């Protein structure tokens, strides 16, 4: 635009234009409409909310939300469409204590500015009142009449973005928009297990939840009973926050954070800090690129939560966020350390999308996305070899867990009944379950926890009878030199000994007698090779490498005595269920499951 010096270029925009611009912030896509309407229904005290979506081949054509909430009288119904008209706050200080989902008074005005809206409402508590029907399109009132109507409110939105072609062009495929709608609805429904929801899509029912359901019921309704079964309850109260909800056992994980749901004071929100805290609470129970399924409801003093930082209020600002995140992390960690986390084996169920639509996008919505564990081919060893036995013996001898307060064993007593393929230990429990233990992963976990118990005082360090000399390339030497202080803390006393040469004087006692120095070579090679983006500190990295290299190898057949040793030691670890990289150590079959597989029932 040309800039002149003539005055009179600045104009105050007319209200219709202002509303359209404001609508751009609040109403980005059909999912935003669903969110605003459903939140209004919740704010109106609805006990039942029904959402009906209609779609053509290419797009969502109408959205209707009907509730049995307070409803509105004649005057309020029209006022509701005026920008900044709200019944929820009166003055700015109310923002500190607001508990309703809305308060900006923008949603209805914004939606009506860019669509055709039909509102039918009647006050719930006044049987004599007549209902009101208002039709507004592009901000203009087309109809305002008295009608008979049930108590409550129903809002129908059609022709979304008919007068904002640019916005309309930005809409993605029907399937994508639908998945956004469903994502938001899932969050809202999970945050309000007390309300009955019913969702239909092109006339077919998709989700129905009952009133006053438990959150677990609601989860089962949306994601299926299998998911619900893999969850454990979390509950914690601290001065700053009360936490309630469910998190998955490590056997149920996903490649993204999409199924971590949070509500803060009843508002479904996203918070990267809290989401990370949940993941951190899993520690080594999950691989670094896998995420749990979690549904957590947080109650935080409203003074500490600023909900007015984002037009759609999806993101909130939390004061003292690091402390609150810390409470969440600890709650998750504590919950997991006290639970039986052995994954149950179930016949693989077909994905069950909550809205059946084009397979590609909707498959992403399905719940059966649990981690597929990599299959390793069994090596061709079948009998214990002499060197194998002595090697395993040596490795196992050093790993008696320190005497001390016996940790609450989360595993029942095990009876080893055999081994399989030099990789797995077979065991049973008193309750008649069959357990299959990955011997390497299990021993790795045992060593990892032992190494973690070291206090760096040198107590669990052993001196080598003859120091071992290591030669490395210049690049590796540079890396190793940097690591020497951290290595020393973990029990490796290593000194530089001329150019690119090192002298190893001590190693952690858990590495055994170290008759075979190739173990040391392997550990140092792992250490100096570039780490694969693992964001862990040196101590953690060294501990993991020592545990992995020091553990009995997959493919070495263990004697019955050795198998028993691994099983017994595993029971005493704090986290017997996964190796330090988050892979499972044990899987379990119950009698019923086996009977089912053999069609015995
Ligand atoms: P906000 O929710 O921020 O107050 P909205 O534009 O979403 O703003 O709604 C404006 C007002 O309309 C609300 O404050 C409320 O009084 C009324 N309202 C909207 N939807 C409903 C509903 N489903 N039932 C009862 N009242 C409603
Ligand atoms: Mg609102």
List the domain count as a whole number.
3
- Characterize the largest beta sheet: strand count, sense, and whether it forms a barrel: 8 strands, mixed
Q: CATH homologous superfamily of the largest domain - what is it? A: MutL, C-terminal domain, dimerisation subdomain
What percentage of the residues does DSSP assign to strands (E)? Answer: 15-25%
Question: Hetero groups bound?
Answer: adenosine-5'-diphosphate, magnesium ion
Query: What is the second-level CATH architecture of the largest domain?
Result: 2-Layer Sandwich
Topology, number of strands: 24
Uncertain regions: pLDDT < 50 for 5+ in a row? 347-382
The CATH topology of the largest domain = formyl-coa transferase, domain 3
Strand order of the largest sheet: 5-4-3-6-2-1-7-8
The DSSP helix count reads: 18
In whole angstroms, the N-to-C terminal distance is 79 Å
Blueprint (SSEs and pairs):
Layout (H helix, E strand, L loop, with lengths): L14 H12 L3 H14 L4 E8 L4 E8 L6 H6 L27 H7 L2 E7 L8 E7 L2 E8 L4 E7 L6 H5 L4 H18 L4 E6 L2 E5 L6 H9 L1 H5 L1 E7 L3 E8 L4 E2 L5 E5 L2 E3 L2 H10 L9 E2 L1 E7 L4 E2 L10 E2 L2 H17 L21 H5 L22 H12 L16 E7 L3 E6 L4 E5 H15 L7 E11 L2 H16 L3 E4 L4 E8 L9 H11 L9 H13 L9 H12 L14 E4 L1 H7 L4
Parallel strand pairs: 1-7, 12-15
Antiparallel strand pairs: 1-2, 2-6, 3-4, 3-6, 4-5, 7-8, 9-10, 10-15, 11-14, 12-13, 16-17, 18-19, 19-20, 20-24, 21-23, 22-23
Helix pairs in contact: 1-4, 2-6, 6-7, 9-10, 13-16, 13-17, 14-15, 15-16
The structure holds adenosine-5'-diphosphate and magnesium ion.
């Amino acid at each position: 635009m040309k800039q002149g010096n003539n005055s009179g270029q600045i104009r105050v925009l007319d209200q219709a234009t202002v509303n359209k611009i404001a609508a751009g912030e609040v109403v980005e896509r059909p999912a935003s409409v669903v969110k605003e309407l459903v939140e209004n229904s919740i704010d109106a005290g609805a006990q039942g909310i029904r959402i009906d979506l209609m779609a053509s081949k290419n797009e969502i054509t109408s959205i209707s939300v009907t509730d049995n909430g307070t409803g509105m009288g004649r005057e309020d119904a029209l006022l509701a469409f005026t920008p900044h008209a709200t019944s929820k706050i009166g003055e700015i200080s109310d923002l500190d204590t607001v508990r309703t989902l809305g308060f900006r008074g923008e949603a209805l005005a914004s939606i009506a500015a860019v669509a055709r809206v039909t509102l039918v409402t009647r006050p719930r508590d006044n049987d004599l009142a007549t209902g009101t029907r208002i039709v507004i399109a592009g901000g203009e009132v087309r109809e305002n009449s008295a009608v008979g109507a049930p108590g409550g409110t129903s809002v129908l939105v059609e022709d979304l973005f008919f007068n904002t072609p640019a916005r309309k062009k930005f809409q993605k495929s029907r399937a994508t928009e639908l998945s956004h709608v469903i994502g938001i609805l899932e969050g809202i429904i999970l945050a309000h297990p007390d309300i009955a929801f019913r969702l239909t899509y092109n006339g077919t029912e998709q989700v129905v939840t009952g009133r006053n359901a438990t959150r677990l019921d609601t989860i089962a309704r949306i994601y299926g009973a299998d998911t619900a079964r893999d969850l454990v309850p979390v509950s914690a109260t601290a001065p700053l926050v009360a936490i309630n909800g469910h998190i998955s056992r490590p056997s149920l994980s996903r490649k993204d954070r999409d199924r971590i749901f949070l509500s803060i004071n009843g508002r479904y929100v996203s918070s990267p800090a809290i989401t990370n805290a949940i993941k951190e609470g899993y520690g080594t129970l999950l691989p670094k690129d896998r995420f749990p399924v979690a549904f957590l409801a947080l109650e935080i003093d409203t003074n500490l939560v600023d909900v007015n930082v984002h037009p759609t209020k999806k993101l909130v600002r939390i004061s003292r966020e690091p402390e609150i995140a810390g409470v969440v992390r600890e709650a998750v960690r504590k919950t997991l350390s006290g639970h039986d986390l052995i994954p149950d084996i179930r016949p693989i169920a077909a994905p069950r999308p909550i809205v059946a639509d084009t397979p590609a996008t909707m498959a992403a919505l399905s719940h059966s996305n649990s981690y597929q564990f990599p299959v390793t081919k069994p090596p061709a060893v079948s009998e214990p070899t002499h060197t194998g036995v002595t090697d395993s013996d040596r490795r196992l001898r050093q790993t008696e867990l320190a005497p001390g307060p016996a940790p609450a064993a989360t595993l029942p007593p095990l009876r080893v009944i055999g081994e399989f393929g030099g990789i797995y230990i077979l065991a049973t429990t008193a309750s008649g379950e069959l357990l299959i233990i990955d011997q390497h992963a299990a021993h790795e976990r045992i060593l990892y926890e032992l190494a973690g118990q070291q206090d760096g005082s040198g107590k669990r360090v052993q001196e080598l009878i003859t120091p071992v000399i290591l030669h490395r390339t210049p690049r590796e030497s540079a890396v190793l030199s940097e690591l020497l202080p951290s290595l020393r803390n973990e029990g490796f006393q290593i000194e530089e000994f001329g150019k690119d040469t090192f002298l190893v004087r001590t190693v952690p006692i858990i590495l055994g007698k170290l008759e075979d120095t190739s173990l040391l070579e392997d550990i140092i090679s792992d250490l100096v090779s570039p780490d694969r983006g693992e964001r862990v500190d040196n101590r953690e990295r060294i501990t993991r490498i020592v545990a992995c290299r020091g553990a009995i190898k997959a493919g070495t057949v263990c004697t019955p005595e050795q198998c028993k040793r691994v099983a017994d030691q595993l029971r005493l670890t704090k986290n017997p269920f996964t190796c330090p990289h988050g892979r499972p150590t044990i899987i379990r079959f119950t009698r019923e499951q086996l009977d089912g597989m053999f069609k015995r029932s």
